[in-house]
Amino acid sequence: MSAYILRRLLGAVPLLLGIATLVFFVLDLAPGDPTAFYFSPNVPPEVLEQLRINYGLDQPVHVRYVKWMSEFFTGNFGFSFGKGRPVADILIETLPNTLILTGTSLILVFVVGVAVGVWQAVRQNTLADGLLGGVSLFFYSMPSFWLALMLVLLFSLKAHQWGWPVAFPPTGMTSVDYDALGFFGRLGDRAMHLALPAATLTLALAAGIARYARGQMLEVVRQDYVRTARAKGLPEHTVILKHALRNSLIPVITLLGLYLPYLFSGAVFVEYIFGWPGMGRVIVDGILQRDYPVVMATSFLFAVMVVLGNLLADVLYAVADPRIRYE
Amino acid sequence: MHLCARTALTAALAALLAACGGDRQSNVGGATVVAALRSDFSGFNTITNSAQYTNEVMNYALFTPLVQYDDNLQVRPWLAESWELLGDTAVVFHLRADVHWHDGRPLTAADVKFTFDMAKTPETASLLGSAFLSDVAAAEVLDSLTIHFSFARPHAQALEDFWWAPMPQHLLEGIAPAELRNAPFNRAPVGSGPFRFVEWRANERVVLERNPDFPEGLGGPAAAQRIVLRIVPEVSTLLTELFTGGIHVDIDVMPDQTASIEQRSGDARLHAFPGRTVYYIGWNNARAPFDDARVRRALAQAVNRQEIIDALLKGHGVISTSTIPPWHPLHPGNIEPLAYDTAAAATLLSAAGWTDRNGDGMRENAGGQPLRFVLLASDDPLRRSVVEVVQAQLRRVGVQVDVRVIEFQTMLQQHRNREFDAVFTNWVIDNFQVASSPFSLLHSSQADVPRSANRSSVRDQRLDALIDAGRSATDPSEQRRIWREFTEVLQEEQPLTFLFWIEELAASSQRLDGVSMDPRGEFMTIHDWSLGAR
Amino acid sequence: MSERRAGAAPVIASALMPGLGHLLGGVPGTGVPLLVGWLSFLAIPVFAWDRVRAAPLGSLDDRIALITLVVVPLLIWAASMRSLLVRQGRARARHTESQWDIAMRRLRRKPLAMAGLWVIAALYAVALLAPLLAPHDPIAQTDIVRLSYRPPSGEFPLGTDRFGRDVLSRILYGARISLAIGFVATAISVTVGTAIGALAGYFGRFVDSALMRFTDVVLAFPRLILLILIVALFQPSLTVIILVLGLTQWPATTRIVRGEVLSLREREFVQAARALGFRHTRVIVRHVLPNVIAPVIVTATLGIGNTIVLEAGLAFLGLGLQPPTPTWGEMVNAGRENLLGAWWLATFPGLTIVTVVLAFNVLGDGLRDALDPRLR
Known about the structure:
The complex is a heterotrimer.
Chain A: H1 2-29, H2 45-54, H3 61-72, H4 87-122, H5 127-140, H6 144-162, H7 183-221, H8 224-231, H9 236-265, H10 267-273, H11 279-289, H12 292-320
Helix pairs in contact in A: 1-12, 4-5, 4-7, 4-9, 4-12, 5-7, 6-7, 7-9, 8-9, 9-12, 10-11, 11-12
Chain B: H1 3-19, E1 32-37, H2 52-62, E2 67-69, E3 75-77, E4 80-86, E5 90-95, H3 109-120, H4 127-132, E6 136-143, E7 146-151, H5 169-172, E8 195-201, E9 205-210, E10 226-231, H6 235-244, E11 249-250, H7 258-263, E12 268-283, H8 293-302, H9 305-312, E13 317-319, H10 342-351, E14 372-378, H11 381-395, E15 400-406, H12 408-416, E16 422-428, H13 436-442, H14 461-472, H15 476-493, E17 496-509, E18 512-513, E19 530-531
Parallel strand pairs in B: 1-10, 1-11, 14-15, 14-16
Antiparallel strand pairs in B: 2-3, 4-5, 5-7, 6-7, 8-9, 9-10, 11-17, 12-16, 12-17, 13-17, 18-19
Helix pairs in contact in B: 8-10, 13-14, 14-15
Chain C: H1 9-16, H2 20-24, H3 28-47, H4 49-54, H5 60-87, H6 99-108, H7 111-133, H8 144-147, H9 167-203, H10 205-220, H11 223-233, H12 238-248, H13 250-265, H14 268-275, H15 280-316, H16 328-336, H17 343-371
């Protein structure tokens, strides 16, 4: 197994190298100019030219590529053009924010999705099954940005307007007076700010997991060993929870590993609409401003997440299912 | 439900309830004032900065510029308590003795000279040095509180060149000019103004606190103990936070939101003041059909500017005739902008050879080519809306406009490289100098320089002569005469069609005292912002 | 399914009003949609007579709408008669049942999937008939000062946008863009994906390795970022958007096709074909691909929904089609600014997206179950 993991990791290196190169050249081809944030037209062209020299943009592309690659792989991610600070600092600041959002969502997705899916399977073809299935399908078909807007509209903006007892804050990670709060106050504050963004991310994905888990559970429940367990006279919830659940969870876990990268890129819309200072906004702003160092570093990071996510999914699959062997 | 699940649920509910007892947000205050805007600041460094709000926060909160402006937009003493103009060639500033850096060191003329020299160094690529100080040649320290600036040439409104703040030499001197933009100082500045820097969480907020040692002569310590500047990217959210007390000043208000604010006048007040941004359509004068002045005039007359102002800006705008803002002392009053007149437009177009020859409702020239062009704009809600309306308005006189709303960078590229038919964009007056904009935008000497600001390839001898005269005239009545004629020629020739000046819109909570805003900026009275009791 | 000869009454009833015969014969599943469709098409000239009359003189759009208005009811009538006659045994079914017929039959038993199918059919009808259905012009600006941001009312059932344009009309016209993009982009991605997957699965070893590596690279790149990058580079036009969406969605199909082809390769009929000396191309196209089509169709159906959402997302970020073309994503984006004051702008186009995507998802699910041999 460890040999397998090692092989996969080694195999990922050329992949990541390829992606980094791809991004570099795609950005290079793009029209547009990082010096454009100097759009005050009073600036004489010589100054713009000087700025390009400072950024090293006057060099031919292969020189830049080699220079950038060697710096990149020694850990020097360079300075952001737009913000004038080390890209590494930006990543260190924003990555945890994104992880808080997507990590919470991932846990909720798993918990809610599996719970709903299993419940549906156990109550197959009843009203509950149909209703939950319909609701799942509804959320599954929803664009995330629209869901985010509707949630903000309803549970934040309108809630404040209509004076509801619970109105969620529409933006940000924490309130302004966060530092003045006690421990539980802070926890509550974070929870309130996290509620709507996490709900947006969770609902659509949980719906997908629920559908999948339901299907898996239905299959597992038809298996012989479940019938045996029932025949042995075990109470129903033991049958479900101890025997059936474990086996139906296996493919669900792998699905989660594959969802991991989506949680990063799917968070882009949510981060914008909720003003969440995470990595998604950083990368989209970086693309729009042609902030090359930022885009490179974040794209690379995303790609690493995908590779690790896939690997994690495969490893978990092998761990959970003893029939699977990797050499 | 299982026991553990129930416990977890109860705990979660308890935490939620604990967190939202009542309208907690309104307890934010005591002496903390919260302002919010849509985009993050760039580095706080006068030498390298080019962003508008960053500049304002530096000039009004963090640092002490040499001069400030009074209510009549005349220059008044600030860091420099007095000055002498030596003819047309130089000026000497005498600095106050009681201003210190927030780390305790005194602010001296050496800091001013250091800042000036860094800005003028080419490797720094400084907007300050290249644009605002383009007519100032050198700085010389006469003594620790006296500094002498010599001018490159006599020019109008010389004192307006000095609305910028010095940076601390002792903290920045070792840094190479090309690296100044990346200096860690910019993210954690040590200033000299009424507020000290506390922290900056990127894309989240900047926190400032009162400087207790701010000199009495400049107003003494500020009213608020703390100022928090929050970054909130969604405009709807900004307004809601204002209404619920989460923030006290909303810097970025959209015209569509003014109705809501006026409805809730008990909670919030609207600030609308003339801004420094004019929106215009740049015709590519080097391309047909825009090389014909009749066509340009006709198109200008077919655009109903007042309708755009009323519908899209909800009245918060003024028709523009040139690059001179209507509130500026040098603005020539009583000049009629080119009238909205579709009949006159039609006549002009026909006279220029564009008539509807095949009955399809659109005009063609003698060679059968339709009067059709691409109108470029970058992607933001206002620009999108305006170009859609212009498209509809021009269609009524038989002109086919293809709108292309693209991402800002791409638009800029095309605009700069002069690869466009017509572009809808804006121009910001950075300071109160009148002469610099016309030169950059309209002078023929710039028309051939690649990537200069004269992207419309304007070459008009009359305009050139007037601009040259205006740049060097130092007598106020002479200046007024020149700029009046300049504006008249612009109406006639329409090398660029100036549409409107927008009013800057902001809103503040009724609980906040000491707030007033005018063309000097939204943050103008940040020193006096304080929360009254409620 | 009854083969006995019933009376002539249902046939006459259906001749007058398609679907009625099915209802009388106790088959509401087919009867109701046919009847509703027939009545809807008839209702249009009744309520919009002016526009129908002006259509032949109008633009190409108007004429297409008129043709649709005439042709589709005829088709409904013919289908209804045929189905009824076959049911009654007065006419023979066209041929013996193929795999598809079996699948279709099973699909018809799923009310949810059929509902999705009818919604999609209605959507296409609406897209074609938009010039006759839309109460106002979706593009023209009339009085932008007076009419902007009107809430839903009698004159403007779903409100107006900032330029005073009717939201309902824009949604109806927007259907064309979304459906066109969804369909064509998915067609491209499915074609490319199938080609690559089939080649990889069939030839195996080096070809497989190389192609799968390539697929991994495309997959490892976060989809949204790639889309933003590309669309930001090239100016967004219909062609660019369709191409971009099509060329980034294919890995999903590739995996499925490759898996199927890998297992099919070992089956006897393929071995036989090779033994007979058929060239690879022929074996792939005539023998392997037809067996792969079923899961591909399911992926395609689900993919259309996904593509519509992605396109809306791009438009939401400002990387969509140019104004004044109405697209649903751009309308939601326009609603963002005045979310509190004009909630209808963001809500209704979004609901439309949800409904359409829901229909495709439900149909796709149904197809998957219907085509799945294990659930026999």
